[in-house]
Amino acid sequence: MKRYIDFYLATMKISILEQIQYSVANYFYMIGMITEPVIYLVVWTTIAKQQGGSAGGYTVGAFAAYYIIWTLVRNMNIVFTPYGWEWRIREGRLSMELMRPIHPIHADVAFFAGWKFVVILLWLPLAAILSWIFKPTFDIRMMEVVVFFLAIWSAYLIRTMLLSLLGMITFWTTRVSAIFELYFGLELILSGRLVPMTIMPVWVQNLSNYLPFKWTFFFPIEVLVGNMTDAQLWSGFGMQVLWIASGILMLNLIWSFAIKQYSAVGG
Amino acid sequence: MNPIKLALTYLRIGILNEMQYRINFFIQLLQSFISVATGLIGLSLVFGQVTTLAGWSRPELLAVMGVHLLMGGVIRSIIQPNMERLMDDVRNGTLDFALTKPADAQTLVSVREFRFWQLVDVIVGMVVIGVAFYQLKGTFGVLQLLSFLAALIMGAVMLYCVWLMVTSISFWVIRVQEISNLFEGLYAAGRWPVGIYPDWLRTGLTFLVPVAFAVTVPAEALTNRLSGTSLLFAFGMTLLFVILSRGLWRLGLSNYSGASS
User: What confidence tier does B259 reach under pLDDT thresholds 50, 70, 90?
Assistant: First the structure.
């Protein structure tokens, strides 16, 4: 166990030191990403205003709060991409990583986890500017802050598992971009990334309850923005833990099949 | 050397090249369908709440979506690949090979790459526009068609100019990949008519990244909102962008000293 903790701490430290150096590049990337929620926010603010101040139960201020927290959750959701898996398998890079005495996925999880600290630091001024422009309304309890902290890290782990599983399809075929895009399309609709799930038709909401997507986007945002009871907060977090556990299980299962398929071509 | 002949030659090479990878056509088709599907879902969510958005009806916004898709296809098939290759060439010093050729350098660097399969988005965009137009039950006069085509061409020229200007920055600054990322993010704003955005953002989308001229103005031509004056204004802006980008390109080029290789 100590071996793992040491590995995680060391990798996270390296990643923080590395990413701090590229803070300008990181900033450009973050600003480029912020246009997406701003577009959604403007559209839904227009609708809410047209309807006299609210749409689908969200006021103008609540929409602003939703999409500003969105930007943090989206940043937490950035993990090693399935395209990265495609690259590392196609180019034979995985061979090197397999040589290490630790499962390669630990390096991904630790590296991106370290990066998150830099991202959160850089996010704060952006959030301040967005709040100044769009004037969100918040009603936050202490318990919500605690669960939010846990929920964004759980969201990070869930999405890491999902995208790693997706990326591992590359072990069998290298024509994967269509599958990836289909996945991202589904995720956009079913996670709360496009609109708060409560605006979706009821059958979509029901469907999303049985899928992992909304636990990576909608749930963490709603923890801060919505008005959940303590019981709802903790049962939601319980669902996240359940998805993490099943993710780890699936990952180990698929990995044991997948690695037999792997034959390096160079690297 | 005749620039049109040059462009057509590169076009032919590009098509021949891409014809080797026919399965990419189906992958591109699937991706276009995914973006149309998510766009339609977005529209249906909006119109589940209201009947018009900032004065635009559902078929009218469908037309905006079609134009956005079409223009996105133009960007990804011609403009973006050429400009990305230019960035790489400047960084690696391989731009020398283009500069020593007996043709206008700007023309040459703008036509070298062509992603044929990305044109699927252009076709799909046209189909979406067609459907929107059918739903509008509008009458399409010759004048309207001409102003739509003119707005479309001017919009594409303006987008090309902005890309060229951004890429020309790479003569001074090395890492411009992030800037092109930012451009893609801003282009996504064209999915909706720029009129809905707050003033500061609308100004940016009109004059800095002319998404307004590239998508909203052609869509206005389609939906009978475009006045002669704004078409004239678009023409003036196009001229301005062409002159500015040409100037910046030459300034950057005079700054280029080649590198290794």
Answer: low
**Residue where the block lists tokens 């918040």:** A138
Tell whether B260 is covered by a domain.
no
Q: Which of B30, B31, B186 sits opposite A35 (nearest CB)?
A: B186
Could you tell me the residue ranges of all domains in chain A?
2-261
Average pLDDT score over residue span A147-158: 95
Number of domain units in chain B = 1
- Residue B38: both structure tokens together: 């998510």
* Helix A104-134 and helix A23-50, axial crossing angle in degrees, nearest 10: 50
What predicted TM-score, i.e. pTM, was given to this entire model?
0.88
Residues of B whose CB is below 8 A from A177? 27, 31
Within 8 A of A29 by CB-CB distance, chain B residues are 178, 181
Does position A36 have pLDDT exceeding 60, yes or no? yes
Position A265 scores a pLDDT of 60
**Structural domain for B234, as ranges:** 3-254
ipTM: 0.84
- The per-residue b/e assignment along A42-80, b for 16 or more CB within 10 angstroms, e otherwise, is bbbbbbbebeeeebbebebbbbbbbbbbbbbbbbbbbbb
